[in-house]
Amino acid sequence: MADLPFKDCCEHAESAQRLGYTVYQKFTCAFCGSRQTMDIPDVFFKQGACEECGKVTAIFKCGYLAIIGVGNERRQT
What we know:
This protein is α+β, with helices and mostly antiparallel strands. The chain has one helix spanning 6-18, and strands at residues 4-5, 22-28, 35-37, 47-49, 56-58, 61-67, 74-76. The protein has one domain (4-76). Helices cover 17% and strands 36% of the residues.
């Protein structure tokens, strides 16, 4: 699924959290195109540092990884 505008993504992620999911924000580095996942759950950031090129991207669109339980269903959006 393509990234959503930041506000829309946060709303979708909040809905998943209410259902018991833990969510991790995902974004694409504006400089090298690498897909990144934040390592802090249930928090959405407006900028992120790329682990590949080290540059900081302003996040206007993003996605998230939603995980429920350990070893249970995984859903990526």
